[in-house]
Amino acid sequence: MTPPSLPLEQMLEKSAEAAEFLRLFSTQSRLMLLCFISQKERSVGEIQEELAFKQPALSQQLAELRQAGVVRTRRESRQIFYSIADERVDAVLQTLLKLFCPPPTSHSKQGEAKAASSPAPHPLGEMAQWAIIDASEQNSS
């Protein structure tokens, strides 16, 4: 697919914004956090428990995502809930899912062999599976 032809000035204007936005996906912890929150609204406690983040690291990551405007918060009594606020996050995550976690082919022998040797599904679901690197696949490349 060839990207649309845009004037160089227009690309230059948007390149800094795009680079800053993509930086939000550049660490495994933030990527997993965005994947997890994108599935449904999550409480801080739920995020901390499911992703096994230490509280200071989680607070730092959530603050950065809040400051960038890609997540929103909702307070209910003493709990704070997070959800995705920027539809571009979902678009990027869907693209990453397509690129890194293609659906298995059920009719090919190669697909069946790969499926038989692949690890169990990740507890965070399909969105998070692409972020798990199977060492055996990495070594066979």
From TrEMBL:
CDD domains in UniProt? HTH_ARSR
Q: Which UniProt keywords apply?
A: DNA-binding, Transcription, Transcription regulation
Residue ranges of every copy of the HTH arsR-type domain listed in the record: 8-104
Q: Where is this region: Disordered?
A: 104-123
Please name the InterPro entries in this protein's record: ArsR-like_HTH, HTH_ArsR_DNA-bd_dom, Metal_resp_trans_reg, WH-like_DNA-bd_sf, WH_DNA-bd_sf
Note the NCBIfam families from the entry.
HTH_metalloreg
| Protein name per UniProt | ArsR/SmtB family transcription factor
Native species: Rhizobium helianthi
